[in-house]
């Protein structure tokens, strides 16, 4: 299975889930500026929308949409408990958070982070709305280690990936101590750390110590 990704983009959610699930994936880096893969393939020929993530299964079928891909990956390894059983109330809660991350966080960040032409007023509107959503998450995480309780799920992989964009845009998370602690808790997970290292977002442990 191939996962088309760009470092730190929303594809990181699928990458994290694949590692947490212990799935073998081939990472294929996409340059979003040129829409070419590292080996020079035209990425529009793989995903006509030009977006990462995309997964190309061993049968050649292409699959897209981060919220769907994390579910698919978790379901390849049900023993990993990254997603509760389909049809359960627990799964409904995970799906609610996936939808929240997709529509309230991911697509609120998008014009600010990915659209070089976005007007200042658009960026400010994004910033304001994200502040409200971060405050809501902060209240929720006061009593819960992860979004749906004590266990890390695919919703956390997606939320972590998107809230992590705050670093790229220099959004200060210190007003949200529970959200900050949640981000640190997830970053410290060995498989998450591996994914961050593989995408060049953090240095290897010995380099971090030396820095
Ligand atoms: N609806 C898609 C959106 C994916 C998306 O926004 N991908 C971004 C990276 S996080 C992208 O490829 N942006 C390039 C662009 O906007 O042209 C999904 O949820 O997977």
TrEMBL record:
<dbReference type="InterPro" id="IPR036282">
    <property type="entry name" value="Glutathione-S-Trfase_C_sf"/>
</dbReference>
<dbReference type="InterPro" id="IPR036249">
    <property type="entry name" value="Thioredoxin-like_sf"/>
</dbReference>
<dbReference type="Pfam" id="PF13409">
    <property type="entry name" value="GST_N_2"/>
</dbReference>
<dbReference type="InterPro" id="IPR010987">
    <property type="entry name" value="Glutathione-S-Trfase_C-like"/>
</dbReference>
<dbReference type="InterPro" id="IPR004046">
    <property type="entry name" value="GST_C"/>
</dbReference>
<dbReference type="Pfam" id="PF00043">
    <property type="entry name" value="GST_C"/>
</dbReference>
<keyword id="KW-0808">Transferase</keyword>
<dbReference type="InterPro" id="IPR040079">
    <property type="entry name" value="Glutathione_S-Trfase"/>
</dbReference>
<protein>
    <submittedName>
        <fullName>Glutathione transferase GstA</fullName>
    </submittedName>
</protein>
<dbReference type="InterPro" id="IPR004045">
    <property type="entry name" value="Glutathione_S-Trfase_N"/>
</dbReference>
<dbReference type="GO" id="GO:0016740">
    <property type="term" value="F:transferase activity"/>
</dbReference>
């Amino acid at each position: 299975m191939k996962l088309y990704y760009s470092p730190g983009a929303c594809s990181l959610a699928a990458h994290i889930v694949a590692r947490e699930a212990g799935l073998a994936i081939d990472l294929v880096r996409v340059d979003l500026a040129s829409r070419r893969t590292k080996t020079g393939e035209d990425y529009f020929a793989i995903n006509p929308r030009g977006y990462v993530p995309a997964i190309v299964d061993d049968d050649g079928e292409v699959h897209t949409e981060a919220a769907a891909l994390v579910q698919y990956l978790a379901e390849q390894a049900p023993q990993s408990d990254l997603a509760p059983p389909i049809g359960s109330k627990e799964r409904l809660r995970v799906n609610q958070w996936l939808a929240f991350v997709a529509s309230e966080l991911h697509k609120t960040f998008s014009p600010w982070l990915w659209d070089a032409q976005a007007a200042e007023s658009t960026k400010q509107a994004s910033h304001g709305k994200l502040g409200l959503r971060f405050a809501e998450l902060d209240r929720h995480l006061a009593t819960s280690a992860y979004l749906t309780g004590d266990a890390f799920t695919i919703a956390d992989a997606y939320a972590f990936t998107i809230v992590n964009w705050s670093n790229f845009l220099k959004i200060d998370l210190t007003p949200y101590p529970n959200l900050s602690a949640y981000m640190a808790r997830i970053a410290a997970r060995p498989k998450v750390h591996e994914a961050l290292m593989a995408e060049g977002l953090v240095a290897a442990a010995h380099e971090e110590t030396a820095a």
